[in-house]
């Protein structure tokens, strides 16, 4: 089978450059295009050079239409508005779309869902193998333990991250809620300040820390009477997300249109 030709959206950013390197290292994948925002000062520069690989002949452009016939898929760790536009572009041109963007609104999620009616889209708040295994474990533990165990989620990221809680924290919250058979939207507590009163039974709490260069630390705490269980994942390099995203793209090639998750990619959907 021919190599899967991939476009990297946001190719000039930290994650984009990591994706360019990862594609170069992955058998069966090849970089076909590199997108950047229209206002970027990096437009016209060589994606390989920016990623530290040396020139590869793929220059950064703000025109996705010019790349449509050259690619099989698009990997996207950008911003919500860009990811929605990219989902529509993928649907219009028959591309696989892998979305690692976080901070999506309900309207953004709905627009991506609409695009998935005619595109193969893999979307996850975290693309790493370890985090998705953690989510499966969180769901199982939440299912097993009774309501005497309170659930709290703690996350820390670098000081440049713009959304909170992180997409990964919300992914873990959804897993915990699924295990408890409750809706996260009605049970999530995202901040506590002042005289809050006693903790409400069944809530899933979120705590957010920001500082330094932390790639991503996440812990899920199950606090019960006189004992506590903690499940933790610590990311040490963005390459884990890039490897997962490229793996997702290769998995998605040839699938039926629809919205998939990393649990589908890793065979964890029924764990």
Structure description:
The strands form 2 sheets. A 7-stranded parallel β-sheet has the order 3-2-1-4-5-6-12, with helices on both faces. A 5-stranded mixed β-sheet has the order 8-9-7-10-11. The mean pLDDT is 94. 34% of the residues lie in helices and 24% in strands. α2 links the parallel β2 and β3. The chain has 9 helices and 12 strands. The radius of gyration is 19 Å and the shape is elongated. By secondary structure, it is α/β, with parallel strands linked by helices.
List keywords for this structure.
271 residues; alpha/beta; five-stranded mixed β-sheet; 12 strands
Topology of this protein?
Blueprint lengths: L3 E6 L4 H12 L3 E7 L11 H4 L9 E2 L11 E4 L3 H14 L2 E4 L6 H10 L4 E4 L5 H16 L5 E8 L9 H14 L3 H4 E2 L14 E7 L5 E9 L2 E9 L3 H14 L5 E3 L1 H4 L6
Parallel strand pairs: 1-2, 1-4, 2-3, 4-5, 5-6, 6-12, 7-9, 8-9
Antiparallel strand pairs: 7-10, 10-11
Mean pLDDT: 94
Total helical segments: 9
Strand content: 15-25%
Low-confidence stretches: none
Largest sheet: 7 strands, parallel
Number of strands: 12
Rounded to the nearest angstrom, the distance between the terminal CA atoms is 31 Å
- Please give the radius of gyration in angstroms: 19 Å
Q: By helix and strand content, what is the structural category? A: alpha/beta
> What is the H/E order?
EHEHEEHEHEHEHHEEEEHEH
The coarse silhouette is elongated
Question: What level of helicity do the residues show?
Answer: 25-40%
The spatial strand order of the largest sheet comes to: 3-2-1-4-5-6-12
């Amino acid at each position: 089978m021919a190599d899967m030709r991939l476009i990297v959206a946001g190719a000039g950013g930290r994650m984009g450059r990591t994706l360019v390197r990862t594609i170069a290292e992955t058998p069966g994948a090849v970089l076909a295009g590199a997108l950047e925002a229209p206002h970027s000062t990096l437009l016209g520069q060589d994606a390989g050079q920016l990623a530290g690989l040396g020139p590869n002949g793929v220059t950064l452009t703000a025109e996705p239409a010019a790349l449509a016939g050259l690619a099989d898929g698009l990997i996207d760790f950008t911003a919500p508005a860009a990811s929605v536009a990219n989902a529509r572009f993928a649907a219009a041109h028959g591309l696989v779309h892998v979305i690692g963007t976080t901070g999506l609104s309900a309207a953004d999620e709905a627009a991506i869902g609409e695009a998935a009616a005619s595109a193969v889209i893999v979307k996850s708040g975290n693309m790493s193998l370890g985090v998705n295994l953690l989510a499966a474990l969180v769901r199982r533990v939440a299912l097993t333990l009774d309501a005497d165990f309170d659930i709290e989620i703690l996350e820390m990221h670098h000081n440049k991250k713009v959304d909170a809680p992180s997409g990964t924290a919300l992914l873990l919250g959804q897993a915990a809620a699924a295990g408890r058979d409750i809706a996260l939207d009605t049970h999530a507590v995202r901040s506590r300040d002042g005289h809050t009163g006693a903790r409400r039974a069944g809530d899933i709490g979120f705590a957010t820390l920001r500082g330094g260069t932390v790639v991503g630390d996440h812990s899920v705490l199950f606090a019960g009477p006189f004992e506590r269980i903690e499940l933790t994942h610590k990311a040490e390099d963005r390459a884990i997300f890039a490897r997962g995203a490229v793996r997702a793209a290769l998995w998605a090639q040839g699938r039926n249109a629809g919205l998939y998750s990393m649990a589908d990619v890793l065979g964890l959907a029924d764990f």
